[in-house]
Amino acid sequence: MSAILSPGTLSTTCCIVGGGPAGIMLGFLLARSGIQVTVLEKHKDFFRDFRGDTIHPSTLELMRELGLLEAFLAVPHQEMPRLSVSFGNRSFPLADFSGLPAQANFITLMPQWDFLKFLSTQAAQLPTFSLLLEHEVIGLIKQNGRILGVQANTPNGPVEIRAGLTVGCDGRQSIVRSSAELPVIDRGAPIDVLWFRLSRSTSDPANALGNFNYGAGLILINRGDYFQCGYIIAKDSFASTIKPAGLPAFRQSLVHLVPFLTDRVSEITAWDQLNLLSVQVNRLQRWHLPGLLCIGDAAHAMSPVGGLGINLAIQDAVAAANILAGPLRSALVTEITLAHVQSRREFPTRVTQAFQVAAHHLLTRFLGNPGAIKPPLLLRLLSPIALFRRTTARFIGLGVRPEHIRPHGDR
Ligand SMILES: Cc1cc2nc3c(=O)[nH]c(=O)nc-3n(C[C@H](O)[C@H](O)[C@H](O)COP(=O)(O)OP(=O)(O)OC[C@H]3O[C@@H](n4cnc5c(N)ncnc54)[C@H](O)[C@@H]3O)c2cc1C
């Protein structure tokens, strides 16, 4: 619900830029606290390129706290109670979620559009929530060093949305972040990922997630009748090496890595069936300005390694809602309040990114080396130990400093 100030100008208490996991969750939680919130999303729906499907136990736990777990799990999904990874011909158990709190002791694989549709449908039932699709933010409204809202393009022409607080949840290419000129710390990423689909048959292993051998890595996310595949390659090697070698060589490399794919690699007939993700790991030095906050990938772009970005974005949203709901209700959002959100979430971000950077280093040790892989010694030693598998499950599943919903939306 946004008030119309004049034709082409709306006003709201909190304007959220971006209807991804961070934006929709924050919008929902603030609206649940009775705050007038307007979420602007540039696309016309939630159907867009693959951007990750993993819903971790921390998010399931939030759904339970919101009283939505049963309805959420009624949305079609797959459940992964354990994670394993294959190095060469050997599979190593990596994480066992069964020791986590009941009802949230597995990873859920659900297309991101279904997840966002579910959450936004819940939010739409709240009178103070408004989601404006096909509203692409093109810049910030600034006055005397303060952010007063945003300018957006819509199918009906440009609009201005004025707000007491603007929150950038617009992802790794954030326009909010760049318009605010917030300095970025780049951690670098030596890998890229090629995303594509291959059909899945019922006889395939259900848990064939990570496969590493012969200088390459292939992630296979079980989507029921197909695999969402992520082929991990050395940075910039798509244009320099993989594409020039041709499609038959690419298909052969998939078969070499995961032989059970032999009967379906012919489904890839053109390079445009593949999406190249240039992996980034970075974070803002400062997540806020007067009247502005960034969270989720807009504050810290995550690598797909470990499938941790969605959940970190959601955890940011919960922390932000817990901290901001009271001040927004009394129109007293100071920079100290915004800095509180950053200090609460910066530590989990740093630890998670440090893990991803370490995993990247490990990957670069064998990427491009065509020989048969030797499984890392540490994995061979630790994988049989139940305590190791439970610890990794806690880190992956619950993350660092898990957030909780304040009862009754902090009212
Ligand atoms: C290919 C890929 C695979 C991944 N796999 C996983 C995975 O399996 N598990 C996992 O946890 N993480 C994964 N990640 C990371 C994960 O997608 C992100 O960390 C997470 O989506 C961040 O959520 P967010 O809400 O901050 O940003 P996003 O999900 O990027 O959402 C940003 C939203 O803002 C909108 N937007 C952007 N610009 C504007 C604008 N100017 N105006 C209005 N709206 C705008 C976008 O359309 C989008 O809806 C993956 C990322 C990629 C790219």
CATH topology of the largest domain: FAD/NAD(P)-binding domain
Largest sheet geometry: 9 strands, mixed
Total beta strand runs:
21
Mean pLDDT: 92
In short:
By secondary structure, the chain is of the alpha+beta class. It is built from eleven helices and 21 strands. The protein folds into two domains: 3-187 and 280-405, FAD/NAD(P)-binding domain, CATH 3.50.50.60; 191-234 and 236-278.
Structure write-up:
The protein is of the alpha+beta class. The chain folds into two domains: 3-187 and 280-405, 3-Layer(bba) Sandwich (FAD/NAD(P)-binding domain), CATH 3.50.50.60; 191-234 and 236-278. 33% of the residues lie in helices and 28% in strands. It contains eleven helices and 21 strands. The chain has helices at residues 21-32, 57-65, 69-73, 112-124, 175-179, 237-245, 247-257, 309-329, 335-366, 377-382, 386-398; strands at residues 3-6, 9-17, 37-40, 54-55, 78-80, 82-87, 90-96, 107-109, 129-132, 136-143, 146-154, 157-168, 184-186, 191-199, 210-213, 216-222, 226-234, 275-278, 282-284, 288-289, 292-294. The strands form four sheets. Strands 1, 2, 3, 9, 10, 11, 12, 20 and 21 form a nine-stranded mixed β-sheet that branches. It has a seven-stranded mixed β-sheet with strand order 7-6-15-16-17-14-18. Strands 4-8-5 form a three-stranded antiparallel β-sheet. A hairpin with a 2-residue loop joins strand 11 (146-154) and strand 12. Helix 1 (21-32) runs parallel beside helix 4 and helix 8 packs antiparallel against helix 9 (335-366). The two termini are 19 Å apart. The structure holds flavin-adenine dinucleotide. The site of flavin-adenine dinucleotide has 35 residues, from helix 1, strand 10 and helix 8.
